[in-house]
Design a protein that fits this description.
The N and C termini lie far apart (about 60 Å). It contains one helix and no strands. The relative contact order is 0.10. By secondary structure, it is mainly alpha-helical. It has a domain of about 25 residues. It is about 40% helix and about 0% strand.
Length: about 55
């Protein structure tokens, strides 16, 4: 059994993506930081939808 077991869901791994070597092993953002990022995305999409709906 390996002695250095890390949860692959908590770090960036090269399994499904082509990534820069510098990003591998970088910890992912915490839940609150991800929540803020999602909220910002929703606001930006809402603004873009409102602007383009009037065209």
């Amino acid at each position: 059994m390996p002695t250095n077991v890390r949860d692959p869901r908590s770090i960036i791994t090269p399994d499904a993506f082509e990534l820069s070597e510098a990003l591998l092993g970088t910890p992912l953002a915490g839940p609150w930081r991800r929540l803020w990022a999602i909220l910002i995305d929703i606001v930006v999409i809402g603004v873009l939808t409102a602007v383009t709906a009037s065209i």
